[in-house]
Amino acid sequence: MSGPIGYDSDQVQHNVVLLTEVPEEIPPSAIISEVEGNRAEDTSAEFTRHLEQRADQLASEVEKVRAWVADHARALSDAVAALRERDAMGAEEAQQALSMIDSATDSTPTGAGGESTSSTQSFISGLPR
Do 20 and 70 meet the contact criterion of CB atoms below 8 Å apart? Predict the structure, then answer.
């Protein structure tokens, strides 16, 4: 079963806000990199160093994810803006075409059977599809 394809721009904008707010809840990489541990013995100091390395890697990945999410949220916002603009342009073009057809049919003399002459037909056939 298929339905019409469409978008709800308010829902999209809500999702963009969610995408940009959630990364703000994740602590900054400087805090993620902080590791406190026992360094009194060699084994525990080595383990603490290992945790520090992993924490640094995690902090680096978190920053990459933040950048990725921000880029995609901007792209989503831009796509919605482009769709809105295209919708507005399409509505304007349709209104202009209707106005031109109305003015052409109002001012064009009719033939014997009450039919409009070929100028309106040629105008309609010249419209983009």
Answer: yes
Cα torsion through 109, 115, 118, 121, rounded to 10: 120
**Cβ neighbours, 10 Å, residue 80:** 19
Determine the distance from the C-alpha atom of residue 5 to the mean position of all C-alpha atoms in its chain, rounded to a whole number: 15
- Kindly report each contact of residues 17-20 with a partner whose C-beta sits within 8 Å and lies 24 or more positions away, as own/partner: 19/69, 19/72, 19/73, 19/76, 20/69, 20/70, 20/73
Gyration radius of the chain over CA positions: 31
55: closest CA among 28, 81, 91?
A: 28
Over residues 12-65, the pLDDT tens digits come to 788 888 877 776 777 888 888 888 877 788 888 899 899 999 999 998 898 888
Contact 96, 53 (CB under 8 A): no
